[in-house]
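Meet my pick.
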Amino acid sequence: MERNPLFPLAAFALLVVLSVFSFMGYLLAARRLQPPPPTQRVVVETQKGPRALQAPLARSPEAWSRGLGVRTEELEALLYLFPEATDAPFSTAGYRFPVVLAFLDAQGRVLKVVRLTPGEVYTPSLAYRGVLEVREGLLELSPGDRVLP
């Protein structure tokens, strides 16, 4: 039985196609496994003067669901920014340590400051556009302070 002379060429073409698909899968997997974006500096203007904190910005529902106390990175703070004013409750379920929350208006002014221990749920009695979540004892916040992302 004679072998078709195009058989080696077809086998080589198949090998090239499989190699291309394999390489594309590698590139796509590498894209998904990138490290989290670097933390950003947030400046908090307090009555004692300005203070810079390393804090990532949480701007999406996925980021809002992962609070400071459940993240594995050692962060000083986390700044939640919302596209519209909300009065949604804030939960520290699953947190490993107490936090201080500063509820912010659209200009970054602190409206209210609350301390929460792990497992608490707090419903603010006001509408807010952002929340600065800070590890307890790291920074003293009070109404009127300003947060600059």
Observations:
- Residues 1-34 form one domain.
- The chain has two domains: 1-34, 40-148.
